[in-house]
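Re: weekly structure request thread

Next one in the queue (345 aa):
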Amino acid sequence: MTTVPASDLGDFATRLLAGGGLDPAYAAIVADVLVEGDLMAHPTHGVALLPSYMNEIRKGRMTLSGQPEKRSNGASVETWDGCWLPGPVLVRDALDAACTKARATGMGAVTIARSQHIACLAAYLLPVTEAGFAAIITSSSPTTQSVAPYGATEGVYSPNPIAAGWPTQGDPVIFDISMSITTNGLVAQKKAEGEAMPGLWLTDADGSPTDDPNVIGQGGALMPMGGVDHGHKGFALGLLVEMLTSGLAGFGRADVPDRWGAAVTILVFDPARFGGAEAFCRQTDHIVTASRAAAVPDGASPVRIAGQQALRRRAEQLEHGITLSQSLVAQISALDPNIPFPTKG
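Done, posted below.
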């Protein structure tokens, strides 16, 4: 394993992306979001995405500069054509726009069609919660068909994550959960490492649950969240995300897009415009405190609140550096041999 200061890793990623042709300001934003993904303990959606992003740039499938096109602009709602601009750039700007609308009306919503991949959804939420807002981000990938509907063996839709964050009187609650039982990134990682999945999270072409990642690409698929027993719930939530993203954006898998990307919807709420910011935090803190105090089996750890481990890991890595595998370091270092990979000082 290699440990690298977060700022140095961000500088490396910025230079790499800008060297590939991405607008330097956009490169810095994308790099910052990728590093934040690693800080928040989502390594499959951190700098591990650099090879895929550089490949999209080299093949001309990512727009390198410019602005999205606004298709609608109301008091609380906007719809954008992302024009295949980098997902992190679009999501950061959309969150700013949604926060502005929420501050004025109580709620802001921005939906984005034709966005490039948006990386780790949890990576966007901490600044929003620190500003006192509650936010929900949903995303689907219209070209990805890796998750099987409950009862099927064939992949039809994407993992369709939902991320959310909101303030309490202490640390915010933050989560980032796919509506499939696992992610494409983890499947690819386990496949490359020759390892089994942690559980029977996949279905093979015959419909048998399996932990073998090699069934993907051979007629198998990811199961919905809930797996064999309760996958009907995950399937329903996956359909919900399709509605919130491709449905509201008016563009998605029905249009058979020709490149990797995302349909995204961002919802931001200003508690001050509802029951009041203080009352909001009083309620959210109460349920967190009660959950932490809930009885657990003898010898078990206390209840862990969503985001607690990610925030702890983030603080540790900001102080001591981000830990990356040697294989990942070798892979991203090879993307441009003229840009040296940083070492811990």
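The CA atoms of residues 152 and 207 lie 7 Å apart. The two ends are 16 Å apart (CA to CA).
Next request, please.
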